[in-house]
Amino acid sequence: MKTIAAITKDPLLTNIIDRFFKDSYNVVNFSKIQSSLDYIYGSIPDIMIIDIVMGDSMTVNVLNEIKGDPIFGHLPVLAVVDDDFTVSDWDSLFIDDYVRRSSLEMELPVKVGLCVHRAERIVEVNPLTRLPGNIAINMQIQKRLDAGTVFALAYADLDYFKPYNDRYGFSRGDEVLKMLGRLILNTVKSKQPSGSFIGHIGGDDFIFITDPENMEETAAAIIDNFTKIMLTFYDHEDRIKGCIESVDREGNKRTFPLIGISIGIVHNKFKKFSHYGEMAGAASEMKKYAKISGGHCLKVDKRHLEPEITQKA
Amino acid sequence: MDIQALRSQIEKIDTLPTIPGVLRKLLVVIENPKASLNEVGGFIANDPVLTSRVLKIVNSPIYGFPGRISSVSQALILLGLNVVKGMLLGVSVFEAMQKTMLGLWEHSLGCAITARIIAQKKGLTEPEEVSVAALLHDIGKVVLGLKFPEEYKKIMAEAEDKGIFILEAEKKHFTISHAEAGAWIAQKWNFPRNLVEVIEYHHKPHLSNGVPVQTAIVHLSDIIIRAKGFGFAGDDFVPAVNSVAWQTLGLSEADLKEVLSELEDSLSGAEDFFLSEA
Asked: How much is the pTM?
């Protein structure tokens, strides 16, 4: 059950909140924001309803401090305000929505529902590609594992990305990552429009999820599409040469191959995973194995197939 | 009108209309839920305006790699089917000069097909880039015809009366030609530098520094397709081949024969693309 933290001195408001939500939410009441802090810092509620009375700057200051902390920035705060409430500067009041006192009866249940839903809809994204980031990725994997869904998980990263960055600079490197994010997203969605998932772990590391029967074809299409498009991200002379000159980690001048992509694939058809970290780790292992085999490459973990199939493979 | 004012007028253009025949076919493509990325891409790659729209979107700063993509198939992979279908929904058509435009559309497609054949013959790594450049080489004529329809009619009439090339009549009237107009809009829309260069120099291929071979291919294709009488570029006669471009390509007579015979086969399929009912 989702939790509402209700902060008000007004018994009428406490009553209304109780009446509307006691059956569908776990409602925790506080008369002052200061006394709610211990609770909120220990277990983030799904929404905070807070009574804002004109002239009570203390409440607003504490609220702004809570919302200013990145960990609590996502906590949806619904303010109950006077009918003549206005704001000139939204930087001085960190709330997510408001209800005027005279329309509480009609609006409060709708606003609470919307605030909670909106907070769930906004997943954290990688700022570069706008793809879901690590928390969302872990949740997506764990959700499937908990539900016992059979699925395939792929881990992709680039080979020789660092020399490209060194040769052309970070902003050109970012262009490649943005292109790769779009490319993986659209290739996965075109092979499997629903039930698939694409996330950006960070840097040149991406993951994607499809049904096991679609995965190898999807990964092969990504490699194929990437190889074609990547060429146009090189300057003409490097494209012709088919390699670039840059410096290695020791600072020595060296020739590097063009960027490739390695993809490791695992699925839970035969091997059971219980934790997202375990499965992501296994996919990352397969990706390292693909890298060793020389880039532009995908490797599927077949170690856990039944013995006779393994022998045929 | 002074050249800066002309340029800023042209740069204000957000989208270009296509011709009615294409619109009819386009609706069929949009409404087919099973249309694959390849089918939609193949359709778009036949039309200079649809191609320019896709390239404009994929090269916009929103996606984060402006000026990098010059092929329709790559653009579609990066934009995704939904974005492309949404873009197609907003396409409008020319209301004036339909006949002239139909001829120009055929000329552009014919030029693209020719350029692809020559690019393959020359072993270029990205023949699609060259065929896109050929498809868009006369986009400046669409731009001028759309922005200044009355003036452009006069230009065409003058070219015919005096027996001069459209290119010359354009220069007399605007001080620039469709080649510059096309390059301006291509630059404004963040098209890759190579593509802008081919558009700008397709009548002066000896000035192309960055991509002399691509420019020479488009220059020659423009002339070959005019000589074959496929489509209508606006002129009643065929201009001469630039000698520098001809040397750059170094095609033998046998090569040229092969190009022409391959072209014969490819054009018969393209002939009715704009005319036939969907």
From this structure: 0.85
